[in-house]
Design a protein that fits this description.
alpha/beta; 60s Ribosomal Protein L30, Chain: A; about 240 residues; Alpha/beta knot; elongated; 9 helices; 2 domains; six-stranded parallel sheet
Length: about 240
């Protein structure tokens, strides 16, 4: 079907999904680019292509290049986008020694996307996001996940203190007051790794709930470390120990 009017229902819906309140209300989000659209197969409501798109993906709707550029969120669009369903997850333990990641107030979309990709690569069993985290369905976050968004359970707007009670695993928090390093901490059994806000770290309330506070060695002069890098170090120390 060819669409040429900005007043069309599909165009209005896609435009509205730039706002989180509309994504939550409709249970939909937008992603762009051939790789992401391919990764999203099975999760899509419909696919929209620009008139000049010459790729291999079949779309439900075709629109003019000018109209596509108006609803696109990317600087150099590939001319293909999909509207996908937000699928809420149910907590299910998938292994005898599960590896969970708890994120508190992560604000940067790039950091969030990188952490999700790292969790995917490490075979994590799930990611829990506090209510203060950047929306995982924010277009910038979606792009930075590179498709990993669809590969593991992600639980949004979680009460992390309640999550800790339900998971029944050892909780290990990255914290500047940690008395051990990740390398001196047993991560071979079921664990939940807690990573805090980029500027403020983990809240006092949540750090008190953690079974262990660990500090990543920083022999250099930097006072802190990027949240996604800290998460990767912690996650892959768990992977190393388990191998």
């Amino acid at each position: 079907m060819y669409i040429q009017s900005e007043g069309n229902r599909i165009i209005k819906e896609i435009s509205s999904l730039r706002l989180r309140k509309n994504r939550d209300r409709l249970g939909l989000f937008v992603l762009e680019g051939e790789r992401l659209v391919n990764e999203a197969r099975g999760h899509t409501e419909y696919i929209v292509a620009a008139e000049s798109y010459e790729g291999s993906i079949t779309s439900n709707y075709t629109i003019s290049d000018g109209l596509y550029s108006k609803i696109s969120d990317t600087v150099n669009p590939q001319g293909i986008m999909a509207v996908c369903r937000i699928e809420e997850q149910k907590l299910e333990a998938k292994s005898e020694a599960p590896l969970y990641i708890l994120l508190e107030n992560i604000q940067d979309p790039g950091n969030m996307g990188t952490i999700i990709r790292t969790c995917d690569a490490a075979g994590a069993d799930g990611i829990f996001l506090s209510k203060g985290c950047v929306d995982v369905y924010n277009p910038k976050t979606v792009r930075s996940t590179m498709g990993s968004l669809f590969h593991l359970p992600i639980y949004r707007d979680a009460d992390l203190t309640e999550v800790i009670k339900k998971l029944d695993v050892t909780t290990v928090a990255a914290h500047l007051k940690g008395d051990k390093t990740p390398y001196d901490t047993d991560m071979t059994k079921g664990i939940a790794i807690i990573i805090g806000n980029e500027a403020n770290g983990i809240s006092d309330e949540l750090s008190k709930r953690a079974d262990r506070l660990v500090k990543i060695p920083m022999p250099g002069r930097a006072e802190s470390m990027n949240a996604s890098v800290a998460a990767a170090i912690m996650i892959y120390e768990a992977v190393r120990q388990r191998r």
